[in-house]
Every structure is written in structure tokens, then in C-alpha cells.
Amino acid sequence: MFKWKTISLSTLLLSVFMLSGCNIKVLNPQGPVAEDQFQLILWSLGFMLFIVLVVFSAFTIILVRYRDRPGHQNHDPEQEGNKWLELLWTVIPIIIIICLAVPTVRTIYALEDPPKQSKDQEPLTVRVVSSDWKWIFVYPEQGIETVNYLNIPADVPIKFRLTSAGSMSSLWIPSLGGQEYAMAGMMTQLILEADHPGTYVGKNANFNGKLFQKMKFNVHAMTREDFQAWAEKVKKNAPKLTKEQYLNILEPGVSAKKTFSSTHLSFVNHVKEPDFAVKHTEILPPH
Ligand SMILES: [Cu+2]
What we know:
This protein is α+β, with helices and mostly antiparallel strands. The protein has helices at 2-19, 32-65, 83-110, 224-237, 243-250, 276-280; strands spanning 124-131, 134-139, 144-147, 149-153, 158-164, 169-173, 177-182, 188-192, 198-204, 217-222, 258-260. A six-stranded mixed sheet has the order 8-5-1-2-3-11. Helix 2 (32-65) packs antiparallel against helix 3. The model has no long low-confidence stretch (mean pLDDT 90).
């Protein structure tokens, strides 16, 4: 009795949790990339629920029908080398795997390119450098750089090119789509898009040390005009980024939000110099 109460209570809690999808960012997509991934999650979940339903129905039917009961003594449950049964439980799992794998692979490859509905838009490139424990964003076309916050135009695909100045991390903006790793000495790419202005949370999805949980930042999606105005204002008013200042930012630790009217690309490319931060900053004291 108690067990059933616990089970029904936890089922109820789980449904309430699932239904309040607004709080689960992944289930509340705010852009075409997140939307595609959401559809894939829905399909996989639905299909797997269907399998669970079929398996448990068959299980119940077999239990009831073939149980040992009066007047059923002649039933011989020995079953060996049945060609059709063997075929059945070999083919069904193959079909299940195909039904899950094909949409997954297709979606993942489709997301390598800008979303279809924005094909005519020129993507905006943002170079991302993760450093222990902050995010550095470079807008090469605008010639500006920010630390720990990201402004993007809505309805424009953003082509992130990621690398790391320190340990490996992973850029994740749940409302806009899945994550991508940032690694020293190499460059990875992620395309995301917001379909309307708003503020979203970005985070690091890969544990990389003691201040890992501080690697959260705000993503402000704004209209194209607002973004243009912001970039021009930064270019005009923000201070230039000096090499000394940049080395300071690379020091292990957290950083406040910063804005610069020039980029660090003029003195270092972390893709080509993966050990730049190790050589130029102080190593963390033992702790
Ligand atoms: Cu790598």
C-alpha cells in the first residue's frame, strides 16, 4: 500500500515537473536550432514510450495467457530454435535503432548549416574563447570584444567559432540550442539563432575546475538595428584592449563584464598558440 502511494506520488510530481516545461529551457525553444532539437527529443521520447507500452502489454498478455492454471496442463513451454521468433527479435531492435538513429543523424548534420528559414541572412561570426573561468566574445566584423556577456541580433544565424585559452569547456545556451566544446589549439563551430529579442542564459556544460559554476553569462538578443547601434557605440566609446589588460583577463579566476573597442586577435590567436595563457599568466598557487 505504502509503495503504491510513493509511486503514484512521484509519478504525479514528475508530471507536474514535465508539464511546467516553461522552466526547462530545452523544452521551451526560442530559436530554430533549439526547435529542431526539441522536435528530435519529442520524437525519441514518444517512440521510446511506444516501445515501453508495447513491451509491457505483450508482457501482461503472455503472463495471463500462458500461466500455469487448471485445465492447462498440456501446455509445453519448451521453445527452442524457432526460426520466426529468432527473426522477430532480431529484426525489431534493428528497426528501432534505425527509427532513432536516422532522424538524429539527419538533424545533427542539418544543424551544421545555418537554419533554412535564414538562408538569405549573412551569418554573424562570433569568436568565443573560454578561459578559466570566464567567457571572451570577439566580434571580428565589428572589431569589438566583450567578456562575460553576449549581444546578438535576433533572426540572424550566429556562427560561433570556439576555442579555449585554458581547460576544455563547453558553450551551452539551452534556450537557443545544444552545446559545443571549446578546446585549446583547435577551433569548433556552432550555429545558433534566436527568433525574437530576449535575454537568455548561457553556461559551461563541461566541468573544468573549482569556479566552473561561475561560467554563466547573459545572452541579449535584440533587433538588428539595436545590435548595430550597440556595436557602433562600443566601437566609438569603449576603451581599447591592451595586451596587458588581456593577460590580466586570462589570469585564472572570475571576471566582471567587460567591453572593448578592439580585439585580442591582434596579439594572439589561441587556436595557433594553445599554450599562450600558460606561458603568460601566473600559475594558480596550490590549494
Ligand atoms: Cu578537440
